[in-house]
Structure formats: C-alpha cells, structure tokens
Design a protein that fits this description.
two-stranded antiparallel sheet, alpha+beta, 139 residues, four-stranded mixed sheet, 3 helices, single chain
Length: 139
C-alpha cells in the first residue's frame, strides 16, 4: 500500500534560499537570517503535517505552489488579472531558490532531498500568500 501524500502549508510571502554570506576575516560562510527563519518555520509546518509519521523513504515527487500577494500599487484591473492567473509573478525569488528551501524538510518529511526524482513548481498571485508543498511517493 502506498503512503498518502503529505501536504504542507506555510502562510505568508514565500521566501527563496538566500545566497550564503562570507566573513572575510575568517573565511566562514553563513546562511542569512531571513533564510534561517523561513526554513525554521517551514520545518515546523512540516513537523505538524507529518504528525507521528517517520520520514518517507524511496523516490518522491514534489509539487510546490508559491502564492505571492498582488502589489497594492497596481490598478484594480491589473490586480484582478493577477488573481485570475492572467499575470504571473516573473519576479524574485527564482524558482530554483524556492526549491532550495526544501532542504529544511530533510529528516522530517524525507530522509534526504536526493530522494526527489521529479518536481513541479509554479508561482502565482493570490489573496492568500503562502507556500504549498505536496509530497508523494513515486509508484
């Protein structure tokens, strides 16, 4: 029997993984605070979604939907077009950086993100911004 899909919802404006920063004097790299904070919130949302289930094993498919707020400065007509999907957020963060925040789900939803064999990601505008992730075992 195949395990049911895991659905994770994190409300708020989606944040992509930030570039590592370097300390010149020591040569050490560190993750920006905004990225650490977002990954921590995502990890918590994943723990709630998983309940008492163990991390998934095997090959996985991931579907990520990043919903962004419509800019308030836009005209009502443009806002309506964005909410209807006629306008899409071709802005930062890049989709690859949105996928990189999924590292926060290692040892929570799956053992390691190398188990992901396929992924679909899309960005859109919404009046309910958030990051929505669906994880399914590959049959």
């Amino acid at each position: 029997m195949m395990a049911p899909a895991i659905v994770i919802r994190l409300a708020g404006v989606p944040v992509g993984k930030g570039r590592p920063r370097f300390v010149r004097s020591t040569g050490r790299a560190f993750t920006p605070a905004a990225t650490r904070s977002y990954e921590s919130a995502l990890r918590l949302a994943a723990q709630e979604a998983m309940g008492d289930r163990a991390p998934l094993g095997g090959a996985l498919h991931v579907h990520v939907a990043a919903h962004f707020p419509v800019p308030a400065s836009w005209s009502k007509k443009r806002q309506r077009a964005a909410l209807e999907g006629e306008l899409l957020p071709a802005t930062k963060p890049d989709v690859d950086n949105l996928l990189k925040v999924l590292d926060a789900l290692n040892e929570v939803v799956w053992r390691d993100d190398k188990q992901i064999v396929s992924a679909v990601i899309w960005k859109r505008y919404s009046d309910a911004p958030g990051l929505f992730i669906k994880v399914e075992p590959v049959a």
